[in-house]
Amino acid sequence: MHNFLAERIYGIDTSEIRKVFDLAAKIKNPLNLSIGQPDFPVPQPVKEAIIKALQDNKTGYTPTAGLIELREAIQAFLSEKTTANYLPQNIIASTGVASILFLLFQTLVEKEDAVLLIDPYFLIYPALVRYHEAKMVTVGEDFTKEEILSLEEKLRLEKKKLKLIIFASPSNPTGKILSREQLTELSALAERQDAVIAADEIYCAFDYEKKHVSMASINSERTLTLNGFSKSHAMTGLRVGYLAAPMRYAEIVQKMVTLQQYTMVCAPHAVQWGAITALKTNIDSELKEMKKRRDLVYNKLSAVTSLPYPDGAFYVYPQVPIDSAEFVTQAIEQRLLLVPGYIFSANKKSVRISYATREEILEEGCEIFCKIVNENKER
To answer: Could you report the per-residue pLDDT of 118-127, keeping only the tens digit for each?
Structure first.
């Protein structure tokens, strides 16, 4: 079969998260802390907007870039959150941020281009770098100005320059929110390297201490802002995400739209109307509950191991005393489903835990996690 497959397809593999998800279906009463999916329902106003759209027969194709009403609503939303002046014609809606990422890489990244990721990183980023035969370079999420300059010198010696800087803040898997000072350093790097910045803000609603700063407020002229509704409004299976670009990058959006004509075609029509309502629907009660879960999990886990403080999102990324693959295996034997950290980082001694589930599951899951940590410390 190898003879029939394109070589580039070997650069990607089935997501370890999806493997754990499939495994959960085979375990009786699993404690599933692996999937990054909110357990609260889609807000009622959003459901009603989708139902009304269906009843009004809004089920056909939309403009490839998305409904103009949605793009205008996104423009208004972003104008309140950033200092960027994104125009509706420079916004594209697609079937979730995952699709946006694919369209972006296809449009922008060529073989041997250098792409900067913040380690730990969302697992799709390195997969897309490999698929496009680009060069992945990384800095740790606690990076300093000196580390950025060191990275830049290394690129100079290799006769490479950055094409793209991409990161999620808040982070998946750690929940860390990059500071204004760090964003400023990335902005300066992009200016020196003439690089595009892609700021994945899919978790920005989950900002428990109000620390999040949009990259577009630091450098509006170089920032592509990515966001969607899967996490904030529990619309994971409904598939709407978007990218907004400054005027200088208008051609990037135009080419992404052209590529979408031949791939996703458009985001689901009725769901786009739901997304418009989602932009006006607050999730304050859900955020209050998620923050409570964050505190519960962080307090329990930090008593037995080290982990980055989770400013936002709904993940923690604790260190474990053994290889993360072995740790996950031991956890599975006790019905606890986690994600090994090596898919997010060169560091193989961390795991990702999602706290987007009920407190009783979190309590029992944390108890098992701590027990496994302590047992392996004693060996």
So the answer is: 999 999 999 9
